[in-house]
């Protein structure tokens, strides 16, 4: 049975857009964001090698700890926040329902 979850993207302070994603396809948050029309380059194809899918987690459920590869890539960014994550490394699961993120500035 498919369980859809809700992910919220903060477009501006106090302005959040809801996106619904399936949990039965093994999708990443990056894939949902790209399918929703956000301008995410994802030049490495979701391998945690480019950081063009950098997001800031603002609220929601606790996520699994980032991998060493993800942490290494985040360290290369000029601006990192407490909630910085690579959206390619966050899988859509029932546990990510209600997640609130903001796209990080990429300079593009």
UniProtKB/TrEMBL annotation:
InterPro entries in alphabetical order: 2Fe-2S_ferredoxin-like_sf, 2Fe-2S_ferredoxin-type, Adrenodoxin-like, Beta-grasp_dom_sf
UniProt superkingdom: Bacteria
Keywords (A to Z) from UniProt: 2Fe-2S, Iron, Iron-sulfur, Metal-binding
Co-factor(s): [2Fe-2S] cluster
Record bears the keyword Iron: yes
Domain called 2Fe-2S ferredoxin-type: residue spans: 3-107
PROSITE patterns the UniProt entry points to: 2FE2S_FER_2
Keyword Iron-sulfur attached: yes
Single GO molecular function: 2 iron, 2 sulfur cluster binding
BP term (GO), one: P450-containing electron transport chain
PANTHER family named among the record's database cross-references: FERREDOXIN-2, MITOCHONDRIAL, FERREDOXIN/ADRENODOXIN
Family: Belongs to the adrenodoxin/putidaredoxin family.
Protein name: Ferredoxin, 2Fe-2S
Organism, scientific name: Hymenobacter arizonensis (Siccationidurans arizonensis)
